[in-house]
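Dear Dr. L.,

I hope this message finds you well. Following up on our conversation about the binding site, I have prepared a predicted three-dimensional model of the protein together with heme C. For your records, I am including the exact sequence and ligand specification that went into the calculation, followed by the structure tokens. Please feel free to forward this to your student if that is useful.
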Amino acid sequence: MHTTVSLAEPEAEQPEQSEQPAARAGDRDRTPSFTYQPALDGLRALAVLGVLLYHAGVSWAPGGFLGVDAFFVLSGFLITSLLVDEWRTRGRIDFRAFWARRARRLLPALVLVVVAVGVYAVFVARPDELQRIRGDTFGSLLYVANWRQLFESSYFAKLATPSPLRHTWSLGIEEQWYLVWPLALVLMVRVTAGRRWAVIGITIGLAFGSAALMAALFDSGDPTQVPSDVNAFANFMRFLDQPIPLCPGTACTSQMQSGSKIFVAIGCANCHTPSLTTTTSEMATGLSQVQANLFSDLALHHMGGNLADGITQGNAGPDQFRTAPLWGVGQRVFFLHDGRTSNMAQSILEHEGSGSEANRVIENFEQLSRQDKENLILFLRSL
Ligand code: HEC
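The resulting structure of the complex is given below.
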């Protein structure tokens, strides 16, 4: 789920340094120990690059998302350094100034992104997307996007187009950490009476505790593959092989062969195209360039007043239907979109109606001899 990320800029750039509290007179060894480190900018660039490669799906960078963790570590290091410096030089931490600096650094860029997404939402987004973006906007601005996404449990929401504000979850985590960490640090310093190793020890203990908790709570299976049962079923269906027709084969009778010829001769094959070849598939090489005997052109046809359901769906008008594939039709109990008949011959006659593209072909069918009709149906059952 959390596959996109927004990287807050860690601190400690030149301007930040000017905000550093001045060292107290006569306190030379306590001047701010932390200064601008160009190497950290290099690390930052590498981290961003990793995340970009990961999202681009580059095969040799499957761990690129660790750049997010690198960013968190950098931010943690820089922020902690600033807080420790302030504590050592001033003996206290000005929380209000600290939080104001964080807001000044993060908010302008975030507001810009939110406004841009808002413009997109108003002019481009579909109504269902709009609803989501509205919620995500508040989540992002309040820096709680991570919690919002965590508690969003609807299958449909997870299957929907990812929100353009999805990546703000990482900003949320960072900002919440900025809120909690200075308080926690001061508390630890107070409790341990400022003993440095005690503070470090507690911090490491908390980090390990958090990691252990995550390991215990972690739900095996790829968390980005939610909902896994739906995906598994879709893949099962997607990778199933096609039904094997009786013809050609040892069970193929001369009646079926005759029916096959009639099927083409009277024009059923105009819509029920006997076979199509699949394109190249990277995902399933076994399904690449395969002849699929689905007996459908997969196209929409006007089927006239008799079959019309009066419903417009996607590109299909009220009397339009996509040619039903006939593979495995012998296994079917009810025919046509509304299952109106369980009689195969009747399902063919139902193709006829005012304005149906199949009228001529159905007239041909009606003129067939009894035997030819029977052969045709035997052929259909063999698919
Ligand atoms: C103009 C295109 C067209 C022609 C010609 C045509 N069909 Fe169809 N056929 C369709 C469409 C579209 C459907 C799906 C209609 C529906 O679901 O209501 C369909 C459905 C069927 C079905 C039902 C399949 C199912 O799973 O419910 C059968 C059987 C069938 N056709 C056989 C034939 C035969 C046999 C012929 C030749 C006599 C023929 N069709 C001619 C377009 C055509």
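In brief: The chain has two domains: 14-191, 254-381.

With kind regards,
A. P.
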